[in-house]
Every structure is written in C-alpha cells, then in structure tokens.
Amino acid sequence: VLVLVVGLVVSHLRSRPDVVYTPLSGDVTMPGAVLTDTDGQPFDLRAETAGHITMLFFGYTSCPDACPIQMAVLGRAFTDLPGSVRDDLRVVFVSTDPARDTPDVLRSYLDQFDETFVGLSGDRAALRTAQLEAGVPVATVDTPDDDGDYLVGHATQVLVFDRDGVARRAYPLGVRQNDWVADLTAIVEDDGA
Fold first, then answer.
1. Rounded CA separation 160/167 (Å)
2. Is 81 buried (19+), middle (13-18) or exposed (0-12) by CB count in 10 A?
3. Helix, coil or strand: residue 150
4. What is the distance between the alpha carbons of residues 152 and 142, in angstroms, rounded to a whole number?
5. What pLDDT, on the 0 to 100 scale, is given for residue 106?
6. What is the C-alpha to C-alpha distance for residues 193 and 66, in angstroms, rounded to an integer?
7. Are 60 and 100 in contact (CB under 8 A)?
8. Which of 61, 152, 167, 193 could cross-link 109 (Cys pair, CB 3.0–4.6 Å)?
9. Which residues contact 183 (CB under 8 A, 6 or more apart)?
10. Helix axis angle, 66-80 relative to 177-191, nearest 10°?
11. 56 pairs with which residues across the strands?
12. How much is the pTM?
C-alpha cells in the first residue's frame, strides 16, 4: 500500500503542469494612467516601469483574502530571488479603494510584505480607466454595512509586463512561492537586460 501511495504522489507531482500562469490571448499594454504614489507624487505607470519586469495588481488594503495572500506570497518570493533578478522587478499595487487607502495606509500595508513594492491610488475615474486598459474587470464597491465597512470586488490576478511594457501572462491567485521564484527568474533571464 505504501509503494502504491508513493507512486501516486510521484505521478501526480510529475503530471503537474510547468505553466502556472495564463497566457494572454492579446498583448496588453501597460495602462497610460498617471496615479499618485505613497509619497503623494505623480507616478506615470508607463514611464516609471519602462525597462523593468513589472507585476501589476489591483486590490485594496482592507481586503480580507486575495490581496494579503498575493502580496505575502510575492513578498516571500522576493526574499528568495537572487539580487540580480530582484533588481529588474517591480511590484505595483493599485488601490481599488481610494476612499480608505490613503498614501500612509498603502505604504504601511505594503511594507508588511516588501518595502520596495509600489503603492498607487487615484480618483475613481483614473482607476477605472487603468483597470480597463489593463484588461481586468473594473472593481465594484459593495453597500456599506451598519458600521460603514464594505468589500470591494476586484480582479485577483497579477499581470506580468515585460520590459517592453506589454503583459503576455496573468498569474491567478494561489501561485506558490517556489513557482513565482522559478518563473520570475526565467522571465528576467529570457527577457534579457
């Protein structure tokens, strides 16, 4: 029985697909939005990320599940990456809840995961346009409860843009840390400096 169980486990592990992302059917260009960073300064998404591999995620700091999971796994993956790979990467977290995600709140939240992660916000119109340009569903705000708390429905995938500012892959919620490390290393090496 033990041999059978070991055989099934090995077979399952070998059958695991090597691709952990979804290839995008059409190239998605980095949104042209100019948002506000956690220092209160304008941040031109295209200009500031040009020449870097950029992971773009739309979320919010009060999110109970997807956002802290994605950011925590990415943060842990970053600690495992060689410095030469890490230097080529940018993680950009765009808030879908500008009413609550002030620059200080965003910075404090992202610092829990990695101090290099960029936090951005803007008015609802600019955020809507950025999401549409990125090809993700536009976030929806639920009706506040009696305490004024509310949830925001938002995309949970991380879009990975190559140095040319085009995303060709989206990573769903649930990608493991070691898969991020392997894929990000391969992307940096394949995309060349």
1. 5
2. middle
3. coil
4. 6
5. 98
6. 32
7. yes
8. 61
9. 20, 21, 171, 175
10. 60
11. 92, 159
12. 0.88
| Band (192; pLDDT cuts 50, 70, 90) | low
Instruction: Band the pLDDT of 72: cuts 50, 70, 90.
Output: very high
Which own/partner contact pairs does 80-88 have at CB distance under 8 Å and 24+ positions apart? 80/177, 80/178, 80/181, 81/181, 81/184, 81/185, 82/185, 84/188, 85/184, 85/185, 85/188, 85/189, 88/52, 88/53, 88/163, 88/188, 88/193
Confidence of residue 6 (pLDDT cuts 50, 70, 90): very low
- In 3D space, the residue among 112, 168, 174 whose CA is nearest the CA of residue 187 turns out to be 168
Here the tokens at position 182 are 């392997």
3-state secondary structure of 168: strand
Closest CA to 119 of 99, 139, 92, 80: 92
CB 71 within 8 A of CB 103: no
Could you tell me what percentage of the chain is helix, strand and coil, using 3-state DSSP and rounding each to the nearest 5? 40, 25, 40
Any alpha helices (H) in the chain, and if so which ranges?
2-15, 45-49, 66-80, 83-86, 103-111, 124-134, 177-191
Paired tokens of 53: 């591999």
Segment 96-111, tens digit of pLDDT:
999 999 999 999 999 9
